[in-house]
Amino acid sequence: MQAHYFIVGLMVSAGLLGGLSNFLTDPNFGRERPWYLATAPFVLSLIAALTTPLFLSLAKSQIIENLISGYQTSRIFSADVFVFFGFCLVASLSSRVFLERLTDQVLALKKDVSETRREMVEIAEEQAALEANLSPETKEAVLSELESEPVSEPSSDSSGVVVTPPANDLKKMRLTPRGYKILMALEDSRFRWRTISALSKETEIEREILSDHLERLLRLGLVGIQVGTKGSTLYSITEFGRLQLHR
Asked: Domains in the chain, start-ordered, CATH in brackets?
């Protein structure tokens, strides 16, 4: 607990020092004005200094953990102390800009979390639709194909692992906007097989999210898969996928 008091003390000290600097360099310094306006630089600087750990957390910095570890091992005045104090001091000196940019980062992170949550809901809904709409024969074929060994190298006469549901299941399927975007990229006539890196770059979809979509498209029989000589996983659109894309 004492380590935390030490860190808070560093932040408060940097905040007060930055607030004093902002107060002395204020264009209105020396003029008569209400007390709350005169103390505004100190308040803003303290707030900025106290939110420095949030900024460091978003930046995935380990400096606070290092400070706590150093304090517990009696290495109080390590380089991390001065670096952290410098961060807090810079934040307090540019308190207004720092807080605005920090707010933008937090809002952007919240947006990313919301998009990820929406994506997970979309995945769950589509998986439920798949389970409910595909016939038992199709689901059995999907599972058996997914458990089979992929071929080692794509060739001109090989189609990889491809699952093609019966025609009567075609009308029951639906594509998400991202699923449609992925199939459009796979249909590019310049490429027979695509890596997940190339697809991620072209579709501007993060690899983890793209991987989930490709797995569902594979289960639906819209995508084929193979493994190249270098061990990379390759994907291509199936004939059934083209029919679904252009229906």
From this structure: 2-107 (no CATH), 136-245 (1.10.10.10)
Helix, strand, coil percent content, the chain, rounded in steps of 5: 65, 5, 30
If you average pLDDT over residues 16-44, what whole number do you get? Answer: 81
Using CA atoms, how far residue 154 sits from 200, 201, 215, 218, in Å, is 20, 22, 19, 17
Q: What is the pLDDT of residues 92-149, one digit of tens each?
A: 998 888 888 888 888 887 777 776 676 666 656 555 555 555 555 555 554 454 444 3
Could you tell me how many helices (H) and strands (E) the chain has, helices first? 12, 3
**In one letter, which amino acid is 72?**
Q
Work out whether strand 223-227 and strand 233-237 pair parallel, antiparallel, or are unpaired: antiparallel
Under DSSP, the state recorded for 237 is E
